[in-house]
Amino acid sequence: MGTERPPTGHDVELAALAAAGDRRAFGELVRRHGSAVRGLLRRLGADPATADDVAQDAFLVGYEQIADYRGEGAFAGWIKKIAARLYLRKVKREARFVLAEAPEDEAPIGSDGSAARADRLDLDEALKSLSKAERLCVSLCYGADWSHAEAAEVLNIPLGTVKSHVKRGLDKLRARMAPPSESAPNDSARREHRG
Amino acid sequence: MADLDFETQLSRLYGQAPVFRDAELFAQQVTDKLDRGWALRRVLIGATGVVAGVAAAAQLVGARFSTEFSQMSQEGAQQLDLGLDKLTHRYDQLFVLGGSETVWLAVALAGLALAFAVTRLMDEV
User: Fold this and answer.
1) How many angstroms separate the CA of residue B51 from the nearest CA in chain A?
2) CB within 8 Å of A71: residues ≥ 6 apart
3) Dist. CA B50–CA B61, nearest whole Å
4) B10–A170: do the CB atoms touch at under 8 Å?
5) pLDDT tens digit sequence for A56-65
6) Burial category of A147 from C-beta neighbours within 10 Å (exposed 0-12, middle 13-18, buried 19 and up)
7) In terms of Cα–Cα distance, which of A157, A25, A29 is closest to A82?
8) B18 contacts A38? CB cut-off 8 A
């Protein structure tokens, strides 16, 4: 009806409009948060095509369930949780297999050369040094803001396994991303309280 | 402390959305899918309305015939001719403006038209 001007406003306002049936308002939410969802899915380990498919499905599911979002948290966090659940459902069989293996530190940690230093702040590059299970657990806990317990429940693996995957993943990321002066000790106690 | 700093930095990095060159295309694809889903839903609602309207009209007409036929059975064979005449007369009334069946059919069709109009209006708004 009339000229197509994208709606503006806070995410919560747009979500309320979308809940009332305004698809253009929801389109604006997709525009704002589409990249974040796609990025998270890739960081969880999805290939680009799968990430985009799952991200689209997540937004479609989000539109159906938009009335459930009441603005208690950020919309980005809400839609990311939906996307992560959809992705895990899609790859659950594979994920179980990978997680059940609980591999030891098979992935190389970057050397301290100049090329590695250039990658220190590149999260996506650093994530490549993690095993699939570590990458999944770290990205769920830090990217989708899941607790260890939530991740353990959805992945259907013991809580201790999630914690050890996260710990090893953090150690590797720290080694790749932290400044050289920081020879960080191996401890990820902060997330322990979440479990 | 360094751990907390690192984890805070990590959460912040995760919170920074990567830049995709096709971000607008992605958003368009999602909204297109939403629109297609809504259009499909509208067609289904309309089709359901048509089926329901036809079924209701058929029930109305069928009930009328059924009543007439059972009455004829009860009244006996000697009144068959009379009943047939009456039935024929009633049936003819279907096509006479102002007959009760015609009114019911008109109401059903008006209901269908209203349902289409409402779904169309919802889509426009």
Assistant:
1) 26
2) A11, A12, A15
3) 16
4) yes
5) 999 999 999 9
6) middle
7) A29
8) yes
Write the DSSP assignment of A51-117 as a string of letters. HHHHHHHHHHHHHHTGGG--SSS-HHHHHHHHHHHHHHHHTHHHHHHHHHH---S-SPPP-SSHHHH
Which residue bears the tokens 């009455």?
A: B71
Residue A186: the pLDDT is 46
Beta-carbon neighbour count of residue A10 at 10 Å? 10
Per DSSP, helices labelled H in B76-95 are 80-93
Out of A34, A63, A143, name the one closest to residue B26 (CB).
Answer: A34
pTM comes to 0.63
- What's the CA gap between A163 and A65, in Å, rounded? 31
Considering only CA atoms, which of A144, A121, A136, A25 is closest in space to residue A73? A144
